[in-house]
Amino acid sequence: MSAISTTVPTPEPPWTLPSRGKTGMFCLIFAESAIFTIFVVAYIFYLGKSLTGPTPAEILRLPIFDTICLLSSSLTIHAAVSALRRGNSKMFLLWWGFTLALGLKFIEGTASDWHEMIYREGFSIKTNLFGTTYYSLVGLHASHVIVGLLGLSLVFLLALAGKVKTQHADRCEVFSLYWHFVDAVWVVVFTVVYVIGR
Amino acid sequence: MVSQSLPHAGEFGREGARGVLWLERAHEWVVTVDHKKIGLMYIAYSLVFLAVGGVEAMLMRIQLAVPDAHFVSPEVFNELFTMHGTTMIFFVVMPLLFGFANYLVPLMIGARDMAFPRLNAFSFWMTAFGGLLLYFSFIGGSGLYGAGSAPDVGWWAYAPLTAKAFSRGHSTDYWTLALLVSGVGSIGTAVNLVTTVLSARCRGMTLGKMPLLAWLNLVMGGMVLGAISPLTAAQVMLCVDRYLGGHFFDTQAGGSAVIWMHFFWVFGHPEVYILVIPAFAFASEIIPVFSRKAIFGYPVMVAATVGIAFVSFSVWAHHMFSVGMPSYGNAFFVFSSMLVGVPTGIKIFNWLGTMWGGKIIFSTPMLFCIAFLFQFLIGGLTGIMLAAAPFDWQLNDSYFVVAHFHYIIVGAILFTIFAAFYYWYPKFTGRMMSETLGKWHFWLFVIGFHLTFDFMHIPGILGMPRRVYTYMPDRGWGELNMIVTIGAFVQTVAVLIFVVNLIRSYFVGQIAGNDPWDAWTLEWATTSPPPPYNFAELPTVRSRRPLWDIKHPEDPDWKYE
């Protein structure tokens, strides 16, 4: 077996390394940021280059309330994780449920907006360049929200079954990093699509 | 590890037992999450694709050997160069390097496995299925009939050639989806590698004491995260265009073909360094051991690698000089591309400094590394030539460019990969590869390589464009192309010798023992092949050469570092 052994017995200094979960999640976030960057660049590059209408100003509704919901869900998930760390499962369940509800409200807002645009106004991904870039960028973000909601629901169901304990706080925190990232991306998407782009 | 219970061998007769054992073993490999097995699967898988990509290259070389040849049709030729490029980059070199990284990084940093073993298995199978999907194009939907459905748009698939109107059927879809799928696998592996290096090092192994291979793979992992993701994004856009009727690259609707080039090369150029940095890693481990000296300038090596990684993200548009850019754009990309030469030159001098005054042992791994140094220098110099925009305007898309990047990918990367095979094979299998066959392999491959790629520069300068399926006799490229093709055959023979060596040594190779090269890094501290848990007792490290410290307790490295 291994021929390695400590030859010099010295008092061992503490040996700590970064947490695996967090490091892995930061790597994933870095990769995802690069993906979003490309889509944002494409969106900005094609602003105003559509050959036909409609333009963003004619069709986009400012999703202010949805934005407030999504951004505040970052606070509630943080509250949930710290409640779990303190060992308060009830408060964890409450805050986590809140987060889930806020996320669902956000995606419901996107869904009804899209329904309105696609079915009432006939504006789809095929319509023009703006449609292509808009649905791709916002859709990419929405798909990340949906993945997050699946994760949130899974943990929520486990918590309802009483399976989420204090020792799982680290894992929940790793997941919350993803959720914070999804919120941060929305700040960028909102700024680019609804503020600058309109 | 795996403990799934298949029917026990004893329950069957003799014939049945053999069948079940085989099944059990295959099952064990399929469900494994052990980094060593996954590493070996990556390597085996890449070798299969190396053979496939090699056959494609040979078919092209036969077609081009003489003027006005009709060995393959123009349509098949388009498929051949597309599949050859895509296969070699995404399904040979990358998985080969991932395989070695998977096997070696945890061993070298004194860990029991990668940080996320199941993610590791997932990543491998994604890459594997990506490759199968690419080759399914030959027989899949609207394929088989004259093999008409293989991708034929070139490995960078410029728009608008990839639009539905110009690329009918599913050939481009196979290309897009294969790269999308394998890209997900690559990102997974990169997440895993970075996390493993940062969060799984054994006690005492600070970042400054890590073997260079671990350092360089950390940098490579970071680059994969930053470079493969834009490719994935661009492939999603292409899918949106092709399946949902989007207009990202649709020039008829105001879309831009040039932005695809930007997105592709934002991935494409860092990709070159993703491939070459692990090759540097092999050289940085092998050259010191066979020079019997510690690596020269360790901190500078690390700094140069990180420097290359940063600069490589700002050079992509040197692939696009001939597309046309404003003069300040040209100036920026000329400057940044030439800047890469500085840290790279530092590395070459450090390897030479390691060899200088050393007691050099000319074993096969070292021979491949020395050839690598020489060829990488030449390939780098033609790179500097092409980085000058006016020179590139003249020679872009000619065989000069093809010769240049094959000088890097074969002459530098593949040579160090062969060195790595000869060096770590004893660790993988417990047996040495044959030195005699190794020397034959080396010398034939060097001769074949130089015949092919030295002479390939000249038709490029004479004006032969890449990707033409034939040329007329009055061009005067015939003799040169014949020499190039002969070189390709010599290389094929050399690779066949390598394969024979690989298989033969597994059965009759000399028993290696734990540490056949008298090396200094942790993978040589455990048995060959290592047990599933790698180390019975996790090691503690006090210097960059932990095994030296154990072998020489009277003169350990940590006294000086």
Walk me through what this model shows.
The complex is a heterodimer of chains A (198) and B (561). Chain A has a domain at 61-196: Cytochrome c oxidase, subunit III, four-helix bundle (Four Helix Bundle (Hemerythrin (Met), subunit A), Up-down Bundle), CATH 1.20.120.80. In chain A, 73% of the residues lie in helices and 0% in strands. Chain A has helices spanning 20-45, 56-59, 64-85, 89-120, 129-160, 169-196. In chain A, helix 1 runs parallel beside helix 6 and helix 3 packs antiparallel against helix 6. Chain B contains 16 helices and no strands. Chain B starts with 13 loop residues before the first helix and ends in a 10-residue tail after the last helix. Residues 1-14 of chain B have low confidence and may be disordered.
Which features characterize this protein?
heterodimer, A: 198 residues, mainly alpha, Four Helix Bundle (Hemerythrin (Met), subunit A), 6 helices, B: 561 residues, Cytochrome C Oxidase, Chain A, 2 domains, globular
CATH topology of the largest domain in chain B: Cytochrome C Oxidase, Chain A
Percent range of helical residues of chain B: 55-70%
Which range best describes the helical content of chain A: under 10%, 10-25%, 25-40%, 40-55%, 55-70% or over 70%? over 70%
Largest interface: A-B, 42 and 60 residues
What structural class results from the helix and strand content of chain B?
Answer: mainly alpha
Count of domains of chain B: 2
Give a quick account of the main beta sheet of chain A: strands, pairing sense, barrel closure: none
Assembly state here? heterodimer
Provide the low-confidence segments of chain B as ranges. Answer: 1-14
Envelope shape of chain B? globular
Q: Please name the CATH topology of the domain at 61-196 in chain A.
A: Four Helix Bundle (Hemerythrin (Met), subunit A)
Mean pLDDT of chain A: 92
Q: Give the C-alpha Rg of chain A.
A: 22 Å
